[in-house]
Each structure stands twice: as C-alpha cells, then as structure tokens.
Amino acid sequence: MTMAVGAATVARARGLWLAPLILGLAILAGTAIGETRLPFATVLRTLANHLWDAGYPVDGIEAGIIWSYRLPRAIVAACCGAGLALTGVVLQALLRNPLADPYLMGLSAGASTGAVLVTVAGVGGGAISMSLGALAGALLAFGCVVALARAVSGGAGGGRATQAAAAIILAGIAGSQMFNALTAFTIARSANAEQARGIMFWLMGNLSGIRWEDVASCTLVSLVGVGLCLWHRRGLDAFSFGADSAASLGINVPALRGTLVTATAIMVGVLVSKVGAIGFVGLVVPHAMRFLVGTRHDRLVPASALAGAVFLVAADVISRVIVPGQVLPIGVVTALVGAPAFALILVRGARR
Amino acid sequence: MRVDVRDLCARIHRTPILTDVSLCIEAGELFGLVGPNGSGKSTLMRCFAGLRRPSAGRILADGADLARMPGRARARRIALVEQQADTTDRLTVREAVELGRVPYLSPLRGWGAADAAAVADALAAVEMTGFATRHWHTLSGGERQRVHIARALAQSPDLLLLDEPTNHLDIRHQLSLMALVRDLPVTRVVALHDLNQAMICDRIGVLHQGRLVAAAPPDEVLDEGVLARVFGVAGTSHLDHDGSRRLCFSHAL
Ligand SMILES: Nc1ncnc2c1ncn2[C@@H]1O[C@H](COP(=O)(O)OP(=O)(O)O)[C@@H](O)[C@H]1O
Ligand SMILES: [Mg+2]
C-alpha cells in the first residue's frame, strides 16, 4: 500500500521534469527538421541568438526559416495536439462514450463551415477574419448539437443521464453532417477550383500559415485547458460509473459538464481556426494513454496533453518531409497513423 | 441518520411517479422498500440520494432539508448503490473504491491517510481486500456489487441506500450480500424485489403505484391481502420452525 503510493509519487516526480523535457525535445526536433535541410548547429545558434542574444553569426534566411516559421509552427502544433487530446479525454469521460471526440460533437465541422463562409462566400465582408469565423462556427455548431441533444433527451434535467449522453452523440453526428453539407455547398456554390483546393487543404489541417502572432492564443487556450482539466480531475474520475454515480458522489453534474464542455468548445474553436480540422488526435491519444497510465485523470490529463503535443509535432514533421518537395496536410498523416491505431483499440476493446 | 419524509411527490414529465409519501426512518434501522416493478422504488431512492428533486414535499436528514444541502456535504452523509452501474474503464477494485472519497477531496487537498484508511476499512467490510488490485472487468456480478458497496462505505455515510443490490446474483451471493447488509452499522434503506429477503429488515415500506401503502415490521405488512392487492399474487405466510416467517407464492392473480 505505502509502496504503491511511494512508487506513484516517484513516478509523478519523475514525470514532473520529464514532461517539459520531452516536450522541449519534440519542439526542438520540429524546428530542426523540415523541407530544407539546415545544419543542427545553425538551429541551436539561431535559438541561442534569439533567446539570450548569443550573437552567433548565422545566415539571415536560415535564421528566418528557423525562428519565424519552424519554431512557432512547432509550438502551435504542440498546443493543438495537447488541446485536441484533452478535448477527447474530457468528452469521453463526461459523455461515457469511447467514440466521443471534437469531430463527433460537430465542433470541427462547424469551424470548417465558419471558415469557409468567411473566406469563400465572403460573409462579413472582410471585417471578420477566418479564425473568428471558424471560432463562431465551432461554437454555433456546438450550440446546435447541445440544443438538439436536449430536445432528444426531453430536457436535460428530467431524463436519465446515460440517455442524455447517447442523445448528444447522435445529435453530434446529425450536426456534423449538416455542417459538412453546408461547407460542401458553400464551396460548390462560390469557390473556383483553385480556392476549392486551398480550402480542402485547410480542412485537412494546415500549419503552414502559422506565425508568432498565432502562438499566444494557442498556448493560452491549451494551458488553460490543461489547468482546468487538472483542477476538475476528481470530478472527471467520478464519472467512471456514469453521471448519476458522479452526482451521488457530490459532483454538480450539470455545472461540471457545462464548464468543461464549453471550455472544450472554445479551445477547439480557437485551435481549429488556426490550423484547420485535424482528426484522430482527440480520439486516439486518450485511449492510448489509458492503456499506458490508467484511467485516473490526475495522470491521464497530463499524459494525454503531452502525448498529443508530441504526436502532432511528429505528424507535422512527417507531413513536411515524407514527400520530397511537397507538404501534405497534417490531417492526412494523423489519419494514416490514427485510423489503424483506432482499429487496434477497437479490436483490443472487443477482446476483453 | 434519521430520515423524515414529508408529503413527498415526484414527477417525471408531469407524470406523477410518487404521491404523498410520508415516512420516518430511524437512525440505525434497516428499512426495506418493496413494491412491484415500476412502483417507484428507484425514484424514491434517487430522491433520498438527492439525484432527483421532489416536485413537492421535503426530506429531512437529521432535521436538515436535503434540498438545501450542498452536493459535497450530502455525499459525505448519504451514499447510493445504484440498481445498475457499470463501466468500460479499466479500473482496479481499489480505484473504484477510492471514488468514494471524492466528496472529501478538493482540487488542492490531496489524498491523505484518513482517505487510505477509509478505503481499506471499506474493502475489509465487504471482504474484498484480496481483490484490491484486480481489474473491474474481471469481477463477477457478486464481486462487483460488493465493490459498489465498498465504494459507498468509503464515503463514510450515515445513510446507505441500496437499490435492488441482489439483482442478477445467484442465490448464494444474494444471501451472503443480504447478510453483509444486515450487519453494516449504519442506517440502511434497501429496495428489494424478493419479498422473502425483505423479511430480515427491521421494517419495510410497501410502494404501490407511487404511494406508500404500509410501513411496519415485515411480519405485520406482508399478509395475503397485501400480496394480492399490491403484488398481484396468491400467497401465504408461514411460520418457519426457527420462528421466522416465510412467504409462499402459488400463482399470479
Ligand atoms: N426517466 C424516466 N422517464 C419516464 N418515466 C420514468 C423514468 N424513470 C422512471 N420512470 C417511471 O417511473 C415509474 C417508477 O419507476 P422506478 O422508480 O424505476 O420503479 P421501480 O424501481 O420500483 O421499478 C415507472 O412507471 C417508470 O416507468
Ligand atoms: Mg428500480
């Protein structure tokens, strides 16, 4: 007993400094590897120049690539990975459904619709940015899904909690389909072939437009997300046996669901607005981490955030180097890795 | 805990499920709740646990209005073992029981020695200490039910609510579970569908179409008239050779 507690404490203490280290290495790798081969020494020198004015002589163009393109891109990739994985953790725990992820809640579909309406159909007349459109779309779709789920389960207060969770999944599927149809409709109506290709690329996830301006908001939402999930870790644990069980353990279920699901929606809205809809991270990473660290959220939340971050940085690197001279949408890479991984999880789940 | 139920009504979508239930459960009592399927046993249990707000009437827990009690404070005093609660999470038995300490923990207050002791005691009380590291999905139905009870006991409740705890168990596990429940030193309310199991209760309440039609010791309540009127069966009550009463049922009416 004491041994188990001791071991857990040691593991946590080790995780405390191991996590930033792994994350730092991943971001460093994301900065060092890319379409153009740059010597690793140049990468380190450039970072040193910017971080503590080391004053090494480096090539201006190379330094620009490293500092202005690759580093913010790697940081944003890490934030997105962490945020999307956390969203999966939260939705899977609160809705008691292993298939819950941002896609299923209509968040990604809504964000795409918002972005497409702004960029292609010209909604807002240039006054609103694509990011804002995507954020609005994500929140709108999410609102629709929640409203529909409430209508289906006959008012959230009365119905059995499990029913409500099933209803929200079904509502999410319906909402996603509708918003995807709207996106397709908008593209078909207003976009020319070139625009359509660009949009398709963005929809599959695209980090190439990321600059330092995007880093702050992404870092903020993902850090707040991690903090909020850790703060409510015991509440998330209490959902193990369903919402009624959580309520009988003194958890204010509507309040916790409301807070975390809304935070999730905002987080995904912001992230998707920056990088497009990246699939499978929110679905696969939490499941993989449950196998590794168990279902307790004091470990699952940091582990998923870290794994999501590293996974997406790695996926971004792969997307840049796998086809020489061409950058793949990152969503293609996450799906190619994620879909088989997900199949594996399904098979293993069915076996036990 | 002394539980005072006054003129309790509960509705779901305007359909009255419980009507004017008034009842007093004494501290330390083992109170059985019987009634046919759909008579409102689970609904009453959920009202007791604070999961359902009564549409009228009050429940007083040691004089304090349950509706005004904050969730965490309530969960430290009242624990519920639901009729069915399962999980697909890969939890160990200990982790499942540790959930019972959630009402005592806060984001900043971590796990302490008192929590560990409560969990160990709860596991011992249901004789599941040896199963602590087993995974939930490897347990049998009876073992799961014991873990649920341990989780509830880890809440250190004054009132333990058990909703049909012997459902889906074989006869040996039913009897050993009821023996376990009988010996727990807290106030217990147990919803039961097996009337013979209800005979060990100090008192039983009979629910019929959402109304409490009787609340008294089992010997006094379960006679031929109640069996016919409430449960719709022809049955008789016999005095066993050990002095306890047994019900025998012959056919549905
Ligand atoms: N969520 C619900 N929505 C509609 N009716 C319900 C709901 N829950 C229970 N009921 C109804 O309330 C009545 C009492 O149910 P319940 O308390 O579960 O009975 P018991 O536990 O005695 O079998 C039943 O008629 C049931 O159909
Ligand atoms: Mg019931």
SSE layout and pairing:
The complex is a heterodimer of chains A (352) and B (253).
Chain A: H1 2-32, H2 40-52, H3 60-95, H4 107-119, H5 130-152, H6 161-190, H7 193-203, H8 212-231, H9 233-238, H10 243-248, H11 253-275, H12 281-293, H13 297-321, H14 330-351
Helix pairs in contact in A: 1-3, 1-13, 2-3, 3-8, 3-11, 3-12, 3-13, 4-5, 4-6, 4-11, 5-6, 5-11, 8-11, 12-13, 12-14, 13-14
Chain B: E1 3-12, E2 15-25, E3 30-34, H1 41-48, E4 56-61, E5 64-65, H2 71-77, E6 78-81, H3 93-98, H4 113-125, H5 141-154, E7 159-163, H6 171-183, E8 187-191, E9 203-208, E10 211-216, H7 218-221, H8 224-231, E11 233-239, E12 245-252
Parallel strand pairs in B: 3-8, 3-9, 6-7, 7-8
Antiparallel strand pairs in B: 1-2, 1-4, 4-5, 9-10, 11-12
Helix pairs in contact in B: 4-5
The complex binds adenosine-5'-diphosphate (ADP) and magnesium ion (MG).
Task: Provide a brief overview of the structure.
Helices cover 77% and strands 0% of the residues of chain A. Chain A is an all-alpha fold and 352 residues long.
